[in-house]
User: What shape does this take?
Amino acid sequence: MDFAEISRSVFEQEIAALAKVNTQIGSEMNALVELIYESPGKVVVTGIGKTGHIGQKIAASLASTGTPAIFMNATEAVHGDLGMLSAGDIVIAISNSGSSLEITNILPSLRKIGTHLVAMTGRPDSVLGKEAELVLNTAVDTEACPLGLAPTCSTTACLVMGDALCISLMQRRGFSSEQYALFHPGGALGRRLLTRVEDLMSKDVPTVMETDLFKDVIYTVSDRRKGMTMVVNKQGQMTGIITDGDIRRAVQGYDDIINKTALDFMTRGFKKINARAQIEDALRMMTQNKITSLAVTENEQSESIVGLITIHDIIDCEK
Assistant: This one.
């Protein structure tokens, strides 16, 4: 038995099922996005069994991208969890058959509470489908299971439909990376997006004079352990930068390197970033320019150097 071939077959069947469900999306998605966007209430996703697990993921994705959402197990709902609902809330009930007893049992209570009901089902003509204001049709022809019993294609269709709803709402809200970071402060991406350059920069900037000899530059770069130094002219203005790379190139390019001054091998057009910029912006600038440090200006209008940020500062922040 070739299990690799079986696995490829499962992929093919589920991809085909998704292609079919894709053609079934219509104006109801537009209506649902606007309903949720305009609602002062929350989204409550409900289901049981495998669809319940899918529902938990959908609720979590919505909540983390700007839509207040929770999951309610349909079995627990009839034993008190319906108390988490309020009038005006939007209930998304997931049931492939649309006739799951646990789902149909809560429909009368949903009407009395005054919630909006949305069905995610493979049977729009089912009890659930007929009761709902809006129906997201996730009908598939077959399951990938050889017995045609285990939810596979049908649950994948629900999962992707939930993703489609989530992304649509993100677009409708204009959900930004800063907002995403606000809801994900524990991850490396969240920390990077919430952290400003000024939070990590060093205000103790190594400097040498334009007239300082090569040996003095080497000493400063080594002693200050930043891998670089700024170069200052007689008027106190920072006119250049010298990095480890500049030193290596100078050693290779000059036979009389010991007689060269900082002015001879510094980089004049050094890169700068303002203190209020995000760490993500600093990392992107370093990557694009293949450098490991940036001079930091006080703000976008000022050219005054107030600090220094290196790639090591960013890496240490993400640990």
In short: The two ends are 45 Å apart (CA to CA). The chain has a mean pLDDT of 89. Residues 3-175 form a domain with the Rossmann fold fold (CATH 3.40.50.10490). The chain has 16 helices and eleven strands.
